[in-house]
Batch of 2 targets.
Target 1
Amino acid sequence: MTAGAAAPQTVRGGDGGDGGATLEWRPCEGTEQRGSECATLKVPLDYDRPAGQTIDLAVIRRKATSPSERIGSLFFNPGGPGGAGTDALPAWYERFFPAELRKRFDIVSWDPRGVGRSTAVRCFRDAEEATAFWARQPAGFPVGERERQVWFAGRAELAKACEQRAAKLLPYVSTPYSARDLDRLRQAVGDRRLRYWGLSYGTFLGAVYANLFPDRVGGLILDGNVDPRNYADGAMDSEPRQTTSLRMGSDLGSADTLEQFLTLCGRASTAGCAFSAGSPEATRAKFADLMQRLRRSPVGEWTYARTVADLRQALYFTDPGWPHGAETLQRLWQGRAPEAAPPPPPGKYPGAEQEAAVVCSESPNPRVLSRYAELDAFAAARAGDLGRRWVWDYEWCAQWPATAAQRYTGPWNTPTAHPILVVNPVYDTATSYQAAEAMTRALAGARLLTLDGYGHTALLNPSTCVNDYAVRYLTTGALPPVGAVCRQDAPPFGPAKPTGGVATGGGGLVDAQGAR
């Protein structure tokens, strides 16, 4: 634990304080944020000491396009943890948010405490030093004992740097603090109740908010779900058998999605999927052969681990991720190194450690280093190549220097003012469908809407059907029917399906308005 940190305590409730602050909106300065307004909200570093030190939250919004029809604000969290809303909202606003929501709501996001443009965890002097550090680490994940020792040493160096540069902030970036910040933001925009769309880790944040402030829930969409119990349960000074990601089944979700990727690719021509070998069976065999070849010898700087990590990321988005992933695999199959991704903008701080600052402070992970090699073999046996990538995501927690001053471990079933809508693709690369079922069971009166599709979250892998239900829910409070199932607008590697299809609990395929 960081020196001077309060003893960890489990949060059981709270009111978030009076707040009372307002936001002074101004045009955002960044060219990538053109059309957005930005503001800063000061909140307590420690809500147990509301008159003490404050930190800044960077906030961004796009105003409702039809002011006369405006309902209020819709808060958006892009996940992570460590996802910066001030980057994600401008990038995704027009592409992914339904036009009706853009018309009726100010869509508001923020960089959670510890992240991005807010008061942030920064373990390096500047962007140059941080970029140089990450360039020295094994790409993707370590393979073999030599790379594991390099990996362990790098994470130890990171932990020491974080303790030196961010010790006072590290105990106060856990999810209960962010949930209280979110309630301050709700107050600052003048909304009586919260409307919210949270992705990935943002579903855990939404679940914590709902149980800390149940009477302030106006409509929460939890999309691409974390299993709250598997994320949060257990003492931080215990030695859990598995990492956070393995407990949540992220490796299994990736394995199932990869199987679908190879199957659909194999059914397509090479014009549809560059890596197709003419059939699902032949394409799966081709992939296995490529992985073995890369383990023996990389193609340029493209090692086995880098390729697996790149593919996992590509599977998050059916468009353009899946075609990109197929093209990358095909180039490697031909012995040609894929084009390198463009470097980050000069001077932009990478902030990769900001994810660790949240997860490692509140979600138990093994601290015995030798356990990770064992889990590597375990995950590979049950989930294949992508399983290995998930094991090493949270190894940095083994040597992390801080524990959260406050954690939230339940209860999860506090009745809320309005029921919560849980949404998940069946084949989600990062947050398995089983985790969404667990989230739905854990919350009081939640309703699960299934996307019969692929990729990480429904918002980022569009379905007009899901969007229609989301609009209806956020504008009227109406939930989808029990057992409702939607299809994606454009399945990967194939022609687009008709939009708006909903398979109801009775099995009939109807459009979003109920017409046959």
Target 2
Amino acid sequence: MYWFLVILTFLLAGIKTQKPKKYQKVSVIIPAYNEEDTVAAVVDVVKNVSFVDEIIVVNDGSSDRTEQEALNAGAIVINHEVNKGKGEALKTGYKEAECDIIAFIDADIYNLTSKKVEAMIKPILEGKTDITKTKFSRASGRVTELTAKPLLNFFFPEISFEQPLSGQFAAKKEVLKRINFESDYGVDVGIVIDADVLGITIMEVDIGAIEHDMSPLSDLNLMANEVVRTIINRANKYGRVVMIDDIGYFIRMSIVGLSLIILGLFTIFFVKFVPLAIGVIITIVGIVLAIYYIIKVVVKSLVMFKKTPRGNLLKSFIKIHFPLIISIIVLLLMISTFIGAAHFENGVLSIEPNSRNLIIYADNTPRDDTISVRGPYTVDIAIENESDQIRMPSDAMMSLGVRANDTIQIDDAVYTINETRPGETDILRVPLEVKDSLNIEAGDVIQNSRLKEKFAGSLITHSNHLVNNTTITEMFFIVSKDTPAYNYEIIVDNASMLNSSGIFKLNDTYNVLIDGQQVSTIYFKEKLSSTFNHDNHEVKIIFKNTNSTSIKSFATENRGNFLNIVI
């Protein structure tokens, strides 16, 4: 028993013990040019971050006490004899740093806190990203909004950071080796572009409000020039100019060709007043244009793809090629529709496309679906042993106002309405007698709008199974077109049981049965309500004109029973 407990103890210890993560050293590089007033405070804040191992201030040719202030604060100082620019200062510090993770922080931030520094570095320590760049709670600068963002959106649309020129960022040293550091203010956007194209992960982190000196207009002009130069150079280097210029033109012409194909096919099948020859010519011209320019797009894209690092290039490809992709999808869907509607028989190819019906109900009739798309339905013959059933698609049932297990009388025969068989979503299966009565043939395609015409004159017995074991059965005839209707409500023992609507004829009479016994004949007129009692139950029917329409014409006294209420 003791040996079992010992083994169990070791197993539990093994489950709970985690292999320690490899320690990663962190360096913070602070480029500084004449920042004697703030550099020491920045160094002091960084020193309070527990996981920072090294602080390097790169004194970029300052003429004030920047070097002394940084040394007094406890930083390692590397001097440039002359001012070389922010990019060179970052590069110098990065090369001298001996840590795994490097953070770059400006020396002129007045309100830097240890939490802000931690927010930059922790996502990398936790393995969430390779590079972090910051954003902070102030409006983006003028250079960002007027130069960087428009150019990035044009040449590198996959890059969508709020503040691509934020200035503060951190990265793994190993990924910085793959990035080309600009020597000037273009360094920030250059790092963002290189990382994106090379597939290096970047996370934008919010470090809150930042306060630092605002640059004078002359410096902003210099910064804007350097940022623009960096973006344009990267766009040339990574083939984005070619993508936007040459490939963009080829894509536009490909879309023209595809659009002509779609226009030609639409003209052939759906526009009667345009001669067939014109539709064919438009289609052929479109095919030639589309094939020629799509080949150009593919060839040019492959050439550029081979010359450019992969990374996130695919995102830009998708965004730039998106209109072409959509046009191709639309054409393929259109062609697949025509192929599905093709019939070949006795050496004759016939293409008979049928569209679905978009139905929008604008009246006040209570419905579950005000907007829907239905049909078309293909006629087939009822299978063996189902000569007393009509299998009807659910959309067709909704259009006719019926449901499964209702009965339908066509001529003198009565059939049960049933759901379609599995896998036959749009198949309308009818017995041979129904086929003859409705004058339809197997293989016929019936648009949803024509369904009521085909079944016009049929008598429906429609049951509504309600609460407390109450069933209300309606009898109505299907008419061929929507006609003004009335809504009615049935209230049994002060409880509303049913709201329905249909066509009533003024001054005509309608039978009401309860439990199969006739209890009332309603003489219909507007604003009518009728109350009657049966076996201690009070039944009230209220009619209202709700400006609705219907194809359900309720059975009058001489043609059947309007209602049968089973309580």
